[in-house]
């Protein structure tokens, strides 16, 4: 591994301070979630290796992972039932609605939604007819009060011996995984029963942040070992964004041995592919820190910066931050944990929050029998859309006022 700085200070100094556009000002004015930039400054190591065009991933890979990332992000939709999002996807993909730009979601079908027994961890299983993929999406730590029990599990960094006796795993992540395990397996069975061997050509497991760590444990515990769920020769694809380290070096080695075995038994290299994506100024991949004995499982991760993906050399896989030799304009100049795949993930969650309130308002109006010129109790769908757009107008006006202040000039 190359030499590195102990923090992101050297990287931050190389990022020229650029004037924010009006859209960027509004985006940062609305930012409320933790982006772990301070963790990046304190704990993340910055590789001395500079990523250049020769390390750049194909545009097709960027597009593929960004599309899967849409399903990853929707795992955070725990305030509005995922079933509602699937049922009303056409309406919700319109401009200013929560799923605007989430084109990969179109035509997909929900198989099952679940909340885990531990800390109410959310996830779902969906089917993508266009790509013939069965997708397991696992949420990261929720924001606000809802996420406090999950945050407690995040902090449980004492190691737990894996049942294989092949190393140690993060005890909090392991408890969260065990809480969703029966629901994930049930969802997989339902998916295979509903869509069959011909309909499902690949299994995708995906998660962001803590959901990424739990995804690794699902593979380690169930999907890469003998089971009665997956048919022979079914390709598996792991796609995780901003994931922390899930276990120690012994467990990481065991995970890689399982991958080698799965590939040998199921048709070769293409039987299993994995993508761990890190991003500029996201400190979560630096957690838990190396000095506690934790390690990443994926040895050839990717790095997201300047709206591009780069292959990280295997010698540098434990580093969190990298210098990037690129002249492309920076869409999200401050980086952070919620800015992957060319999207502001917090914007989705904010809009879902507005949708939750709009649904409650529409339901209350309908139950009360209130009618106006624009609202009709007999058409609750139009009601919630109306209330939602009213909230959009109100909040857009608020952020415009905030960003006009001297703080953003």
What does this structure look like?
With 409 residues, the chain is an alpha/beta fold. The chain has one domain: Rossmann fold (3-Layer(aba) Sandwich), CATH 3.40.50. Helices cover 39% and strands 17% of the residues. It is built from twelve helices and 15 strands. The strands form four sheets. Strands 3-4-5-8-9-11-13-14 form an eight-stranded mixed β-sheet, sandwiched between helices. InterPro entries: AB_hydrolase_fold, Fungal_lipase-type, Sec_MonoDiacylglyc_Lipase. Belongs to the AB hydrolase superfamily. Lipase family. Class 3 subfamily.
Task: Spell out the blueprint of helices and strands.
Blueprint: E1 4-5, H1 9-14, H2 22-29, H3 37-42, E2 46-51, H4 59-74, H5 82-87, H6 89-92, E3 109-115, E4 122-128, E5 133-138, H7 148-154, E6 159-161, E7 168-170, H8 171-199, E8 202-208, H9 210-223, E9 236-241, E10 247-248, H10 249-265, E11 272-279, E12 294-295, E13 302-305, E14 308-311, E15 321-324, H11 345-368, H12 380-403
Parallel strand pairs: 2-15, 5-8, 8-9, 9-11, 11-13
Antiparallel strand pairs: 1-2, 3-4, 4-5, 6-7, 10-12, 13-14
Helix pairs in contact: 2-12, 7-8, 8-9, 11-12
Radius of gyration: 22 Å
Euclidean distance between termini CA atoms: 42 Å
Give the domain tally.
1
Strand order of the largest sheet: 3-4-5-8-9-11-13-14
The biggest sheet amounts to: 8 strands, mixed
**Overall CATH class:** Alpha Beta
Give the CATH topology: Rossmann fold
Please tell me what the overall shape is: globular
Number of strands: 15
The residue fraction in helices comes out at 25-40%
Order of helices and strands: EHHHEHHHEEEHEEHEHEEHEEEEEHH
Pfam family, one: Lipase_3
Keywords: Disulfide bond
Catalytic activity: a monoacylglycerol + H2O = glycerol + a fatty acid + H(+); a diacylglycerol + H2O = a monoacylglycerol + a fatty acid + H(+)
Family: Belongs to the AB hydrolase superfamily. Lipase family. Class 3 subfamily.
